[in-house]
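To: structure subgroup
Subject: Chain for Friday's discussion

All,

I'm putting the inputs and outputs inline so they're searchable in the archive.
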Amino acid sequence: MSIVQNTMIALARNASVSRFMRSAGARSALATRFIGGADVEVALTTAKRLVERHGIRASLFYLGEYVVDRTAIEYNVNQVLAAIDTLGRARLDVHVSIDPTAIGFMEDDTFGTANATLIAQRVACQPSPLGTGNKVMLDMEDLSILDWTCRLHALLHAKGLLVALTLQAQRRRTLDDLGKLVCQSTSVRLVKGAFPESTAHDYQGRACIDRGYLDAAHLMLSPEARDAGFYPARGRSRCNRRSMSNRRGVQGRSSFLLQENRCWGEQRARFRSRFAQARPIQFTES
């Protein structure tokens, strides 16, 4: 991981910095360029507008990495639950992403597991009028929590809950992790990754990371994955994300970004045009 990223993670875990960021409010002007609303109701209005005007279905992403204060953790969980209920009443996709370190895993694995299960159970109780959207997406954070996040996905999936996992193409182990998942009726969101590590763990350089992305996508789009009921998705950081933001581990003002919710099947042509020269890929229709 780079010096800058190590520094930012250390600051996010620092209680004094957290208190300062909560009181400063300096991030508000920048954040409003990208977030869809300052609370659940405003974000809901934005999500409805995206569906009605553009046919874009959104995924709610609550940001709150490395939260150590129990009061803040409970606040995060309650905000996610409230948002799930609000989306359900509005008959939109109840598709939410959560950071494991935002919901209790910085304090205790049992506490975090209980909160993740509660969130997934609440999603499972909601209607799905648009057809495919209801799901809890486990976001992937730094390497220290990768194994735990994969185990959490396996645990929730075994309980029959609607859960999906984010994997990072830059990780050398991602193909092995995917190999265990594409034979299941589950979902993976593939991203390039934002927490680079050493060469022992990560591909280095854009070309190698692109190759890793291509290899992972090829596996996710395979006939075997399709036949197993596997649902491939891709993610990237853009301004069409909806997220309640409480990033510094303190109870504070919520806000929402908008993340477009699509499967690979809707974007194969674009993917082909970018990567076809790197490796011939046989695309199959789902």
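Points worth raising on Friday:
The two ends are 37 Å apart (CA to CA).
Confidence is low (pLDDT under 50) at residues 237-254, 264-286.

D.
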